[in-house]
Design brief:
single chain; alpha+beta; two-stranded antiparallel ribbon; 3 helices
Length: 99
């Protein structure tokens, strides 16, 4: 006799997939997209931290492809999602000084 290996009996949160600080847990953001090119993932130079949603890792190329970035005082800042653009635009100094 076998036993059931399905995971239908518990939520994604049991595996930490619904949590993680991604702006309300939205789906395919710049921080969570599957690039499929490098099995080891992006290098440290290809990553940034969202200045609005601290702790949210952003793949720079993905964010740029989606327009999720701003240049402020000679520095580029990348966002994990579109919801982070408005707060940054309203008071960029607040978010860059926290960096």
């Amino acid at each position: 006799m076998g036993h059931d290996h399905s995971h239908d009996d518990h939520a994604q949160a049991d595996h930490g997939q619904a949590e993680g600080g991604h702006c309300g847990g939205h789906g395919d953001s710049a921080a969570t997209s599957n690039r499929g090119m490098n099995l080891l993932g992006p290098s440290a130079e290809e990553l940034a931290e969202c200045p609005v949603m601290r702790g949210s890792t952003v793949v720079k190329a993905d964010a740029e492809a989606k327009g999720l970035f701003r240049d402020y005082e000679g520095q580029r800042y990348w966002f994990c999602c579109a919801a982070c653009e408005a707060p940054f635009d309203a008071d960029p100094a607040k978010y860059v000084t926290a960096a």
